[in-house]
From TrEMBL:
Classification of source organism: Eukaryota, Metazoa, Chordata, Craniata, Vertebrata
Basic and acidic residues bias: start-end ranges: 170-210
Record-given protein name: J domain-containing protein
Listed Basic residues bias regions: 219-228
Annotated CDD domains: DnaJ (cd06257)
UniProt organism field: Ficedula albicollis
All residue ranges annotated as the J domain in the record: 65-105
InterPro entries assigned: DnaJ_domain (IPR001623), DNAJC8 (IPR042858), J_dom_sf (IPR036869)
Parts forming coiled coils: none
One GO CC annotation: nucleus
């Protein structure tokens, strides 16, 4: 495994990012990959931005990604260099995405949705406990358990989004392929029609020439026949008695 024991911010969002990156750097899957999924968990939160400047957060993020890139560098993982190279490139891409405001907002929305879902679930659990006359105490009251629940729900949401993205890309690729096949078929059809028209015109000219030659030959034969077989009428000699 590439990533172990990274020490960084203790905020909920940093915790989620570290856990996801640490796991997906060394996991193999055809559905969710390091490049396409886990590093979209941009380590920012609306709450933390209230107390920490964006510049400071970027410095912290830069330090985190620097540590991560060192840990997954192919030179330090020569026994698994291919996957290490992919992880190293993904970490670099993730840091660049960190500075993309649109990508950051999308990631924050998903993380926030995961947090709100867990909070709603906890609220419903406590409501049911009160209704049953039991103490409204749940395991998510423990900050670490709550953090773990948010992490799991966030990963689930990102996984669902990733699956939908892949399905959408597959559908778009299929549509592009279909359109391309139709274009090729149209081009081939037009080519066949041009060739047919060309061959038809050439054969038509040949048929016309053959017909003219046939007519000319027929006319010549008739004229020759007329000259050959035309005889003056025979004169009958009168017989004397």
């Amino acid at each position: 495994m590439f990533v172990t024991g990274i020490v960084c911010s203790t905020s909920l969002y940093w915790h989620i990012l570290i856990r996801v990156v640490s796991w997906f750097v060394h996991v193999q899957t055809n559905v969710i990959t390091l490049d396409s999924f886990c590093l979209r968990l941009i380590p920012f939160s609306q709450k933390s931005l209230k107390y920490t400047s964006s510049f400071t957060m970027i410095l912290i993020a830069r330090s985190f990604f620097l540590q991560l890139s060192i840990l997954v560098h192919p030179d330090k993982n020569q026994d698994d260099a291919d996957r290490a190279q992919k992880a190293f490139e993904a970490v670099d891409k993730a840091y660049k995405l960190l500075l993309d405001q649109e990508q950051k907002k999308r990631a924050l929305d998903v993380i926030q949705a995961g947090k709100e879902y867990v909070e709603h679930t906890v609220k419903e659990k406590k409501k049911q406990l009160k209704k049953d006359g039991k103490p409204p105490t749940v395991e998510e009251d423990d900050p670490e358990v709550f953090k773990q629940a948010v992490y799991k729900q966030t990963m689930k949401l990102f996984a669902e989004l990733e699956i939908k993205r892949k399905e959408r890309e597959a559908k778009e690729m299929h549509e592009r392929k279909r359109q391309r096949e139709e274009e090729i078929e149209a081009q081939e059809k037009a080519k066949r029609e041009r060739e047919w028209q060309k061959n038809f015109e050439e054969s038509r000219d040949g048929r016309v020439d053959s017909w003219r030659n046939f007519q000319a030959n027929t006319k010549g034969k008739k004229e020759k026949k007329n000259r050959t077989f035309l005889r003056p009428p025979k004169v009958k000699m009168e017989q004397r008695e």
